[in-house]
Write a structure and sequence with these properties.
- This is Glycogen debranching enzyme.
- The protein is an alpha+beta fold.
- The chain has two domains: 205 residues, Glycoside hydrolase, family 65, N-terminal domain (Beta-galactosidase, Chain A, domain 5, Distorted Sandwich), CATH 2.70.98.40; 458 residues, Glycosyltransferase.
- It is built from 17 helices and 33 strands.
- The strands form eight sheets. The protein has a twelve-stranded antiparallel β-sheet with strand order 11-12-13-16-9-8-7-6-5-10-15-14, with no helix packed on it. Strands 1-2-3-4 form a four-stranded antiparallel β-sheet, with no helix packed on it. It has a four-stranded antiparallel β-sheet with strand order 17-30-31-33.
- The longest helix is centred in the last third of the chain and has 21 residues.
- It is globular.
- It starts with 5 loop residues before the first strand and ends with a strand.
- The relative contact order is 0.08.
Length: 686
Amino acid sequence: MRQELVHVMAGNVFAISDAQGDIELDPQAPVGLFAFDTRFLSHWVLRIDGERINALSRDDMTYFETRFFLVPGAASHYVDADVSIIRHRSVHDCFHEKITVLNHASQAAEFTVRVEVASDFADIAEVGQLRERDVQIAVDSAGQRLLLSYERERFARETTVQSTAPAEVDEGGMTFRIHIAPGGSWVTDLHVSMTIRGEEGRDLRAGLQSHQQAVRGTMRDDLTDWLDRAPQLVAEREGLEETYRGSLADLAALRYQPLAYSERVPVGGLPWAMALCGRDSIITCLQTMAFTPELAPATLRTLALLQGGQLDDEHDEEPGKILAQLRYGESAAFGDRPTALYYGAADTTPLFVVLLDEYERWSGDADLVRELRHPARMALDWIDEYGDLTGDGYVRYQRRNERDGAINQCWKDSTDAIVDAHGRQPAFPRATCEVQGYAYDAKRRGARLAREFWGDPAYADRLEREAAALKERFNRDFWLPRQEYYALALDPYGEPVDSLSSNIGHLLWSGIVADDRAEAVAEHLVGPRLFSGWGVRTFATGQRAYNPVGAHLGGVWPSDNALIAAGLRHYRFDVQAARIAAGIFDLAQTLRGAVPEVIAGYDRSVTKYPVQLPSAGRPQSWSSGALLMLLGTSLGLRPTGDDLLVNPAVPGGFGRLELLDIPGRWGHSDAYARDRTASPHRSRTT
């Protein structure tokens, strides 16, 4: 069995080690100290008198710090060890480790403490397929520093390790020869800084570090303030308050400040998506609107600033298109991968408009709507000008970059995710059903913004006509009357991809489903083929490609289920929504800790436990956000003018729920509910 991996993180700076705190290359996992897609430490091993150390216990204090309690040697030495070690590790803009060696003997003792240090400066995208780099090492004995650097043309990265205690510094690390009195201790602080060099040698992280310098000693205060600004949950269900605060803490950990931008936005998640991912960030903001609304304006402004402005096949860029991914690694810098600014997503652009409208509904921030008028209209124009690749009125995708662009450019973006019931892949360009729902919703919301804020009623009328036509066309072409559900996609010839998938739940969320078909869709979502007991599977059982451990062909995603539950409530299927919410909350509380990105789709009655997939990230912003959205959906929170409407449908067994100080245009409101309460009532506003 693989040893447990331990992480500390802050924004997109993170360190992953083994249970002892040591870092050694692992071809299957991104072990090391990373920032902005580069590994700054690939080897960080502590030895006492030449021996490796072993773990006694660990205290995970916060997301950004942990303590390892250790002894040298094998397990047989634990009981009567004369020496023990504490490693107190933390990250913010840099990496810190305080090493304390304790002498438990009745005599003075001398020890040789060795910290082995190395960096390969690998791009996180190439972990598992590493290449050699010419890493330069400089020893500064006088300054107790070890400097490691790598440079390739304009791409330059540096790692500096410095100790507060006297050390013998060599190219492989630092050695401390120490003397400890009986019952005494020895301490050193190791500081690892990470430098990103830009033009003329300028440190691109300097601005971030100056900002973080003020936060360095107050990261706990920053977390406390974040938690205090969010609504307070009071719940009868045991453990629910803890799960809620854990999700908020995970979201705090997953905020980062992109280079050259001033506001913190959510990254995708640990370990592979520690970057700005347009889809993940937008959906996270939509999920958390009632809880952490400050994420939305920063995300909207950042995505607007990076909006596509030209035709660029390499980066799948088109005018008006919203970013899919922003990366800073070496492969992105030199075009080995098109990820420096990559636009290969068909859904981010309509979702950008959805988020802008939803944020105004909650916040009343008309100034932001006016500020982002041009980016929003460009996004709406993209839907018809570049999204409609075959002229049939549907948003389709086909990668421009045939070498290494994303094959599937919807939320189910694995290469084999879009297949029919017999496992056959359709031709390109593909029109997946949920993207049409997003486009429909974007046009309706864009019409509201145009009429109320942009002073353009004619444009609003046009968008409303286009939305109505899209809904009618969609319900004609995507509906499978014999199966009574919507096709996963249309191929370029208009033929439906007839598989049953969780995507139909997104259609309820967007409102594109015809009223007389909503009940059939709802029953499929909670039927035995899609609903596992923990949540809705991405792909229904009984189809050839179904695989319970396939991320998009049978796995259960909390983020997917949060949108589905919200869609069910939109069409007043409260019992079905509550069933899904209960399953996801059971999943979260059973696993404890951060909510995983995806679990296996095995039936709950078979496994009795949510089976995690090794490839799943944890924590993930839209998984942590999913719990908040499900809580808001269970309470039925909805802004209505300057009031907050509360219309609960709480799952059985939850008892009483109170959500206090919900922020919004109304100031702050409280919401109260009990199991399966169905009567709408207005909240109390303060």
